[in-house]
Design brief:
single chain, 169 residues, mainly alpha
Amino acid sequence: MNYFFLTLGLSKISPKISQTISLFIALILSILILIYLDENTLFLATLLISIVTLRAINKYEEEGGVHFDEHINLDKFAGVGFALSVAPAFGVDINDITTFSNGFLIQALLSLGFFIYFEKAKHSIIGRIYHEAKGGIAIVGDDVLAGFIAGIVSSLLWQSFLKVQAYLA
């Protein structure tokens, strides 16, 4: 049951496909939380998911599971959730989600893109956490940090775009 939870039930398919599916599900769920609730709820839900995932991975490894199992996908939820909650996401109406003027969808996609980049590239401290930490901290910690950095970078990029746009207008 623990492995099913950690892999989101996608352990029978290719790890790359299951990770792509889990990123897409995490993005959709995060956007829905932002639409119907707010960024604080997303942040707290992501924090809870991170803690539960960390404990589940530690238990899985104690029971003889493979460290850095490619099928574990739940850590991606933590990264995407933090990326979207750290970026200046704001609650929007469901009808406004495709309105590009408020930047909600653009910033969500930017956050996802930067998260994927930072999580795969593992620069600086993200790579150190991944390679040097033990257990669940290594698996969840790099995604959490990549999510925070992705949210900050996407926020800075979007705010810079708005400043340049206002300056040119």
